[in-house]
Amino acid sequence: MENNNEKETFNYAYSAKQQKEIMNIRKKYALNDEEDKMERLRRLDRSVTQKGSIVSIVVGIIGALVLGVGMSCALVWSDMLFIPGIIIGIAGIGIVSLAYPLYSRITKKERERLAPEIIRLTDELMK
Fold first, then answer.
1. Per-residue exposure over 99-108, b if at least 16 CB sit within 10 Å of its own CB, e if not
2. Per-residue DSSP letters for 13-75?
3. Non-local CB neighbours of 91 within 8 Å, separated by 6+ positions
4. What is the residue-level pLDDT of the chain in tens, covering all 127 positions?
5. 81-95 burial string, b = 16+ CB within 10 Å, else e?
6. Is-contact 33 81, C-beta < 8 A?
């Protein structure tokens, strides 16, 4: 006669691929303060240059478009818009040349603004 306390069990082991997927899902919900701080540090570091990059790209594109309008005026309608086309093209070159100084200035200000938080997080993580 069998003992009723002994139960038959079935053990199933997941494959390595499934284990990895399970661990990735678990990481999303696990509260790990060190990992959160590291992720925040990475995000802050990326955000320092992100704002400057976006602004400089937009300014560069606008300048390139203005330069293109000036070139079109000077080359296509040269009989009546040659001089205004040159002036518009020079203005476009000026706008394009502002893109990098804008990037540098915005990035510098963002670094100054975020430096205390980044230093605090790095101090906590290095302990």
1. beeebeebbe
2. ---HHHHHHHHHHHHHHS--HHHHHHHHHHHHHHHHHHHHHHHHHHHHHHHHHHHHHHHHHHH
3. 66, 70
4. 455 556 677 666 667 777 788 777 777 776 555 567 788 888 888 889 999 999 999 999 999 999 999 999 999 988 898 999 999 999 999 999 999 999 999 999 999 998 888 888 888 878 7
5. beeebeebbeebeeb
6. no
**Chain position carrying tokens 């003992």:** 3
Structure tokens at 64: 């390139």
Question: How far is residue 94's CA from residue 75's CA, in Å, rounded to a whole number?
Answer: 20
